[in-house]
Amino acid sequence: MLKKINLNSLIPLSQRTCFRNYSQEAAAAETVHDDEFRVLNLRKTKGTLREQSKRPKPPDVPPPRYKQMAVDQDWGAVWPGPKTFHPASVPLPVRQGWVPLNKTVPGKFANAELMKIPNFLHLTPPVIAKQCEALKQFCTPFPKGLETEEQQEKHFPVKFISSDYVHGLPTIRNPLSRIVTIKLKLSQLKLDDHARDKFLRLVGERYNEETDELTIVTDRCPLKQQNYDYAMYLITALYHESRTVEEWESGKQEADMEYYDWHNNQSKVTSTEVLNWGLSGDKKVDPPQEYITSVENLMNEGENEYNLNKYKESVIKMLGLA
Questions:
Q1: Please, are residues 158 and 182 in contact by the beta-carbon 8 Å criterion?
Q2: CB 119, CB 111: distance < 8 Å
Q3: How confident is the model at residue 31, as a pLDDT?
């Protein structure tokens, strides 16, 4: 004879409550109307998911570095070389940028304008002095006898000027680095009147009369050294060519001269005779240099108020009519 078995007796006591609750919830779910949404209960797992999604709190951002800097710190250790501007490392209220009228100029934080331009914050006077002290061991004493500019120009009359460039191109040679400039005082060449006049006519506008300086620029050769050698060759050729006297130059008459020379004109004979009227022997004198210069300027530059006044003053002074 079969006996009825109670299923509750087979389920452990600890799980009977859960089974009973599940049966009650299932029965309640069946009574829900078909038109309503069924509620999904995640209450039991909600706390677990929240704990899993919780992330650690990020640490607090420390204050900028410049607020912790000492007043007497070694700036060379903070900013040792050229680099992009960093606002947290510069203890200065730097501002840069264009703003409309009556607006505040942007500060150093989040300022892209300050990062665009190169800065020289690494070249402060104390750092420069320290670098100079380190370089002294590689320097030689300045040569004696060249303390003034006059002494330097006397011993080194030729000035050589060139440029070097650092850039990022496929070739290391910049086209502008081959240009060479040579400057020279014309008085250093020791030219006579004929050679000086011929030299100036050959160089043309390359001579500055106010500074008595000759400037020659060469750039036709591909290398800097080649342009330097070519410039020195031009100076040498101009010097020797100006001192050369051609046959046709020695036979030039007064009407063939390109400029008025007082020593080769009738004015010299006339003025000398007027000054030495009635004198003989050692008593004869020559016209003063002031009169000679005024006559040459009047004939070469033309008649103007300045040259006429200078000529009048020199004549009155030479004849003693004051």
A1: yes
A2: no
A3: 52
